[in-house]
Write a structure and sequence with these properties.
single chain; alpha/beta; TIM Barrel; 14 helices; 10 strands
Length: about 325
């Protein structure tokens, strides 16, 4: 009996060994196959509320993104709690000027809708909607999405609709919402407008397949130094080819489609609000030299389009007499024109 078990175990180990070797060769093939691309687009994510965290005038920051940095690709969001603070009453003042200023400059926008939109606390749900059942909240969200899409779908500035922000990553102060809810949002956007739809996912913590399968354009994040309440500050030990490998496997499953880095870390990730930290604390996580290193790292990841995260912080630093982060991006933009 022991002899039979040993033979079975040997067979299992042999098969496992073959599968591991096969996986290594497949992985190596996709790492080799994925091109090292010269960046062709640098954009930013902009949040007027993040600008206010730094006591900045959001309109001045937004104008400087276009007129000083020279950026022509910006991701903005429609924050549900700001737009529909009272049920059925809509205030688009915080979004209208962002779209209008982009139109004036022939800029291109990625427009994020849904309950989970960039910047903490991630989910921006009005207080009245938090009192609803999950089903009722889903219905209210779809009605809100429809109003937003119909208001802005005729804008030539909007090139991509992004539905939710990393919807499959459990992060932030968010209620549980179902895959079915996300799919209904995606179906609504495609019913109302023909522009491509983006779905995003975490570069380090998620399997991309669920998001990539649902998207016309897939967006990943790329963070290197982060803070975790259990581990403290740490740096992911991931080489650039990790992203090339991950992209290759994802394309193997879902087919080839456009993929971009929708959030490339360009600001500190620390255990407090950035304005309340000393410059030394901020720079310990992200300083100009590490930022340049991160940009070089990203250029070897197999992607050629990067939306940088942290423009409000760079502007604030510049106002405080530290223009280095701002100037690094300004120089990079010149190389893509």
């Amino acid at each position: 009996m022991r002899g039979v078990l040993w033979l079975v175990l040997r067979k299992i180990l042999k098969i496992a060994g073959i599968l591991i070797i096969l996986a290594v060769f497949i992985g190596a093939y996709f790492v080799w196959r994925a091109p090292v691309l010269k960046p062709k687009i640098y954009g930013v994510t902009f949040s007027p509320f993040q600008a206010q965290v730094f006591s900045l005038d959001p309109k001045r920051v937004y104008a400087a993104i276009f007129d000083d940095l020279g950026i022509r690709h910006v991701r903005i969001g429609a924050y549900w709690n700001s737009i529909e603070g009272e049920r059925g009453t809509f205030d688009f003042s915080s979004v209208d000027w962002q779209v209008e200023e982009a139109e004036k400059r022939s800029a291109e926008l990625v427009f994020v809708i849904g309950r989970k939109v960039p910047r903490w606390p991630e989910c921006h749900i009005p207080a009245w909607a938090l009192q609803l059942s999950a089903k009722e909240q889903d219905e209210a969200l779809l009605k809100y999405d429809e109003v937003v899409i119909n208001r802005y779908k005729n804008s030539p500035a909007i090139k991509i609709w992004q539905v939710e922000n990393e919807p499959f990553l459990p992060f932030g102060e968010c209620p549980n919402f179902s895959t079915e809810s996300i799919d209904r949002e995606l179906a609504l956007v495609r019913l109302l407008d023909s522009r491509p739809v983006m779905v995003t996912d975490s570069g380090e913590l998620s399997i991309w397949i669920r998001a990539a399968r649902r998207s016309d354009i897939f967006g990943t994040t790329m963070y290197r130094r982060v803070f975790n309440r259990y581990l403290g500050e740490f740096e992911y030990p991931l080489p650039p080819w990790f992203f090339r490998l991950k992209r290759g496997f994802t394309e193997l499953v879902v087919g080839k489609k456009p993929m971009v880095v929708i959030e490339l870390q360009g600001e500190p990730w620390i255990n407090k609000w950035i304005p309340y930290a000393t410059l030394e604390e901020q720079y310990h996580s992200m300083d100009p030299e590490y930022f340049k290193e991160t940009l070089e790292y990203a250029s070897r990841s197999g992607f050629d389009t990067f939306y940088l995260w942290g423009v409000e912080w760079w502007y604030w630093l510049r106002e405080e007499g530290h223009p280095e982060m701002w100037d690094i991006v300004k120089d990079k933009i010149k190389t893509t024109l």
